[in-house]
Each structure stands twice: as structure tokens, then as C-alpha cells.
User: What shape does this take?
Amino acid sequence: MFMQKKHAGIISGGAVLAAALFSGSASANITFTGLQLAGLTYSAPGPGATAGYVPTSGGYAQLTSPDNVSSSPGQFEDTGMLLVPSGYLGATPFGTLSNVLAQGTAGNISFNLSSMTPVADTSNYAYWNVELANPSNSSDTIVINAYGDNILNANPLNQGVAGNSSVDTSAYLHGGSLTYVFGPWSSVTGTSVDGTALGSWNVTGLTISVGGWDSNTTHIGDISSITVPGTLTPEPGSLGLMVLGGIGLLLKRRKTRDQG
Assistant: This one.
């Protein structure tokens, strides 16, 4: 087929190769690994906390907390944290809190906790947070702190643990009163803030944190992958390079055939 129309065959062959390399549509989920984790937003607001990408061993996110701030409203200021914004690298926009919780229950939103130090302290592992904005007033924001199952490996959102959610101290409301919610997610989604049930608030980002437990022990969590719904979008420049690589491969094959 390539010999019949050489130039057209080379271009279409490169396109086919690129399509094969980026055939994310075959899967409903994206799993971010390696350099894809490097592009996330990392923050560590308090002294002694760190958060960042480690390029060794295939690449992973590392979150560290001295876990030594115990007073409100600064209890969570000693956390190491990373943010997955809505729509990151082709991730499906998260939608409402109720939608995100349903995706989590289905196993479509999860992070892989490859290691935790100290590993024996199984009550203080990494956990999810959900960042919300009021659909009627985007200036109203709330962060829901989701207590996890304290397990290594897969940590899906909405793990079904009774009492696994509470409102973080970083809520910012205009003219509304904040109700602190401790209980299962069903209690959270049904709670009305500023006239709108939290289940209908928009999720602007998902974060993963280490710290905030007041244990006065340094904790380090390594996250090797994060899975969310969507189809992977190649970073700028990578598609062109891979298409060129495909063209080079086809040129080499054509030259070999011509010589033969």
C-alpha cells in the first residue's frame, strides 16, 4: 500500500502510528504516571512540609508533613499536597460532587499509594480532598477533607467508610454560614450551603494530602499514579515528535524494501 502512493502513504502511516500511540479513547479512564505527575500543582504551605515530583524510579509524587500544627483554623497548614485540576491533560471535567462520588464508587477515581512512612502508623496515610465551587456563585468555595482507608496501593475516592468526610478550614463563603459536616458522604451531599445542596456544587479540583492529623510525627507518602475519567491528551510538542518518529520508521522500511 505504501509503494502505490509514497508521499501520501508516509503521511498517513505517521498519522496511524500517532493515533495508535494516543488511542486513549479505548479506555474510559486516564492513569497519570511519570512525567504526567510532574505537571500537577504541588503545595506545602506550612514549615517543614514538602510536596513535589521525584524523577527517579520511574517518577512519582512525594508528599511530606511534620504533622505538628494542631490549632484551628491552621490545622491543615502542615500538609504536603498535590492538585489534579478539572480537565488536566484530557481528564473529563469533574462535574458535581455527586458525580465525582459516583465515579469514585465505580473505581474510576483513585490514586496508588506505593509507600508510606512510617508504614506502621496505619491511621495517618494519604487521603483525598475535594475542592468545590457554588454553581450559583463561584466565589463561594469549600474544600471537603475525605478521610481515607489508610491502605497502601489503590485508594479510590468515596471509599464507603462511615465518617470519612469533613469540611476543611479553607472554606471561603460570601454571606453564607458554613456547616461543618462529619459523617458519610451521603450526609455531605445533602447538606445545603448558601441555598444549594453540596452534592450539586461543582468540583474544580481533586487534591491528595499528607498531614493534618496532629500526631507530631513526620509522614511521607509516595504516589506512583493517579486515575481519573477521561482520554489522555498529549502534551504540546509530543504529538509532532512522535509523528515524525513514525515517518522516519516508515521511510526506513520503504528504503529497505526498495533495496530488497
Observations:
- The chain has two domains: 1-22+235-260, 26-233.
- The CA atoms of residues 181 and 188 lie 6 Å apart.
- The two ends are 17 Å apart (CA to CA).
